[in-house]
Write a structure and sequence with these properties.
With 396 residues, this protein is of the alpha/beta class. The protein is built from 13 helices and 8 strands. Helix 2 (22-37) runs antiparallel to helix 3 and helix 10 (319-334) packs across helix 12 (367-380).
C-alpha cells in the first residue's frame, strides 16, 4: 500500500479498520517531502513543514484507540464531531494558523506569527484533521504561476521544468506530488482552479460566502474566497462539508446546508441542470484538447441524467476587464496596512515617516505586487474612481 497516494476517504477507512495509523501516514508524507527536498529540482510546494504534525497525528491515534473499536473512525461518545480524525492536510501561506508564521509569500511579513486560527482551519482542526505545513504561493496571491514568491518558484509535479500555476501553486504541487491528501488555497480570479488544472488534480472555488474568509489575508475582499484541492472529488467534498457555514466573524459568510456532500454519489446528479455559457464554448484561442475535455465532461454529466442547457451571458465579455479593475483597486487598499509600523518588515532610514514607509514597502514588496498597487491606486484616484472602479462594480 502506497500510503502517500491514499485520499481522504481511503485514509479514514484504513484508520477505521486499524490497517494504518495517522502517525504512520504523516511519517510517510514527511519522508516523501524530505526525499523530494534532496532532488535536483524539488517541488518547493511547502514553505514550512510543521514539526508538531507528528505529535498531533499520534494524539489523533490515541483518541481513536480510546473509542469503541466497533465504531470505526468514531471517537467514543463523539461520533459526528470529528469526521476527519487523523487526516493530514496543508494550507496556503495566506491562511492564519495560530502560533505559526503567515507571510503570504512576501518578505514584508517576515517574522509575523498569526495570533489566531482562520475559521476554516479551526473547523478542520475541530474535526480532527492534522495540519502538515504551509504552502508556497505567489506573493499576496498576485500571480498565476507561483513564480512571484519570496521563497522561490514552485515546480509542477507532472514536469518539473514547468510552473504549477498560481497563486495557490504550492497547495496544488503538494497534492499532485503526493505530499498531502488535500490542501487549502485561496482564489480571487482563478488561483485555485488554475493550479489544480495545471497539476492534474481537482480544485474547487466555492460560491462566495460558502466558506468564511476570517483569518485569510485580503487581496481583493469582494472577490477573495477559500478553495480546496484534492486528487478526487471525495477528497474535496468531506472537508468542504466540515468548513462551510455561517461565521459570526465574517458577515459575508452564508448559512448553507451542504451536509449531503458527505455521502455524495454520481447517481445523485440525475435531473440536475447544468448551464454552459455560450461564451465559454466560443472563446477565442480555446485549445482543441481543452475543448475536447470540456465536451467529455458534458457527456459524463448527460450520461448520468443531468440536463445540459446552453445559456447566453454576453456580459461575460467584460468580466476580465471588470475583474482587474476591482481586484487591483481593492488590493491597493488592503495592502496599505503593510507600512513598517504595525507588524512585519521595518526599514527606517531615520529621516521621517514618509521615508520609513517608502523604504519598507520598496524592499518588502516584490515587483508584481508593486505593479498592482500602482495600477490600483491609479484606478482609485480622484479623477478616475467614478469611471473605473464604480463602473466595474456596476458591471459585476
Amino acid at each position: 500500500m502506497d500510503i502517500c497516494s491514499l485520499g481522504v476517504t481511503e485514509l479514514l477507512e484504513a484508520f477505521s479498520e486499524r490497517r494504518l495509523t495517522s502517525a504512520a501516514a504523516v511519517e510517510a508524507l514527511k519522508k516523501r517531502y524530505d526525499q523530494d527536498c534532496g532532488t535536483e529540482k524539488p517541488l518547493n510546494g511547502y514553505i514550512e513543514w510543521f514539526e508538531d504534525a507528528q505529535s498531533l497525528a499520534a494524539a489523533a491515534d490515541e483518541k481513536r484507540a480510546a473509542g469503541d473499536p466497533a465504531a470505526g473512525n468514531r471517537v467514543a461518545g463523539n461520533s459526528d464531531k470529528q469526521p476527519l480524525l487523523g487526516v493530514p492536510f496543508a494550507v496556503k501561506d495566506n491562511i492564519s494558523v495560530k502560533g505559526k508564521s503567515c507571510t503570504c509569500g512576501s518578505r514584508i511579513l517576515e517574522g509575523y506569527t498569526a495570533p489566531y486560527n482562520a475559521t476554516i482551519v479551526q473547523r478542520l482542526l475541530d474535526a480532527g484533521a492534522v495540519l502538515l505545513g504551509r504552502c508556497n504561493m505567489d506573493e499576496f496571491a498576485m500571480g498565476s504561476s507561483t513564480e512571484y514568491s519570496a521563497y522561490g518558484p514552485s515546480r509542477n509535479p507532472v514536469d518539473r521544468d514547468y510552473a504549477p500555476g498560481g497563486s495557490s501553486g504550492g497547495s496544488a504541487a503538494v497534492v499532485a506530488g503526493y505530499q498531502a491528501p488535500f490542501a487549502l488555497g485561496t482564489e480571487t480570479g482563478g488561483s485555485v482552479r488554475l493550479p489544480a488544472s495545471y497539476c492534474g488534480v481537482y480544485g474547487l472555488k466555492p460560491t462566495y460566502g460558502t466558506l468564511s474568509r476570517w483569518g485569510i489575508v485580503g487581496f481583493g475582499s469582494s472577490l477573495d474566497q477559500a478553495g480546496i484541492m484534492g486528487r478526487t472529488p471525495r477528497d474535496i467534498a468531506l472537508p468542504l462539508s466540515v468548513m462551510a457555514g455561517a461565521d459570526s466573524y465574517d458577515d459575508t459568510s452564508a448559512d448553507l446546508d451542504i451536509s449531503a456532500l458527505k455521502n455524495l454519489k454520481a447517481a445523485d446528479i440525475a435531473g440536475l441542470k447544468v448551464a454552459v455559457p455560450r461564451q465559454f464554448e466560443a472563446a477565442k484561442g480555446l485549445d482543441p484538447q481543452v475543448a475536447a475535455l470540456f465536451e467529455s465532461a458534458k457527456k459524463w454529466f448527460s450520461e448520468r441524467g443531468a440536463v445540459i442547457e446552453t445559456v447566453d451571458i454576453p456580459i461575460l465579455d467584460a468580466s476580465i476587464a471588470s475583474y482587474y479593475v476591482i481586484a487591483l483597486s481593492e488590493a491597493a487598499s488592503n495592502l496599505s496596512r503593510f507600512d513598517g509600523i504595525r507588524y512585519g518588515l521595518r526599514r527606517d532610514p531615520g529621516e521621517g515617516f514618509d521615508e520609513l514607509y517608502i523604504a519598507t514597502r520598496s524592499e518588502g514588496f516584490g515587483s508584481e505586487v508593486k505593479r498592482r498597487i500602482i495600477i490600483g491606486n491609479y484606478a482609485l484616484s480622484t479623477n478616475f474612481s467614478g469611471d473605473c472602479y464604480k463602473k466595474a462594480l456596476s458591471v459585476r
